[in-house]
Design goal:
CATH class: Mainly Beta
Radius of gyration: 17 Å
Strand content: 25-35%
Number of strands: 20
CATH topology: UDP N-Acetylglucosamine Acyltransferase, domain 1
Distance between the termini: 50 Å
Largest sheet: 7 strands, mixed
Strand order of the largest sheet: 2-5-8-13-16-19-20
Helix content: 10-25%
Shape: globular
């Protein structure tokens, strides 16, 4: 799914960025999530997972998606097993968002695959995928921008703003996110 050409669709003056079929699908999806999942209590993760899968998301076993999480376009969402999308997470997946196994996206985090070409007089929408590796943690209210790749075990700290590449087993913090330290697991006692 590619965005419409802004010049032809007149997106800058209120025209659509996506096809009519895409917009109708997303409207149906929003109603379905509201009716089938948004009101459900926290323990009903399997039900919410099933609703997302029915609308085209690919989600592994044991993954928990909270009812207040929002997904813009389920077919662009790929989540591994035993991963969590916490309360209030926003997956603005105009392009593919891939999240590995045993990863956590904490409350209020925003995963955004879309932006605009600021050099284009028509302000063309541009999208790039996001990839979050196994065992990564996107902490509370962090922002993950278009094209960001978070390596295995990478951590984006609370309220950090990440673009580009977050190396495996590192912790980044701040706006823009910068290397803070390496991440290591303690040895079992």
């Amino acid at each position: 799914m590619k965005p419409l050409e802004a010049k032809k669709s007149r997106a800058l003056t209120g025209g659509p960025s996506f096809s009519l079929g895409n917009r109708l699908y997303r409207a149906l999806w929003q109603v379905a999530w509201l009716v089938l999942a948004r009101w459900t209590p926290p323990p009903l993760h399997p039900w919410r997972r099933m609703v997302l899968i029915a609308f085209g998301a690919r989600i592994g076993k044991g993954t928990r998606v909270y009812s207040s999480a929002t997904v813009w376009y389920p077919p662009h969402l790929r989540i591994g097993s035993f991963t969590t999308l916490g309360p209030g997470v926003s997956c603005y997946d105009q392009n593919l968002i891939t999240i590995g196994d045993f990863a956590t996206v904490s409350q209020g985090a925003h995963l955004c695959t879309g932006s605009h070409d600021i050099a284009d007089p028509d302000f063309q929408l541009v999208t790039r995928p996001i990839h979050i590796g196994d065992r990564a943690w996107i902490a509370a209210e962090a922002f993950v921008g278009p094209g960001c790749v978070v390596g295995e075990g990478g951590v984006i700290s609370a309220r950090a703003v990440a673009f580009g590449h977050v190396e495996a087993w590192t912790v980044v913090s701040g706006n823009p996110a910068r290397f803070l330290k390496n991440r290591h697991f303690r040895s079992p006692a």
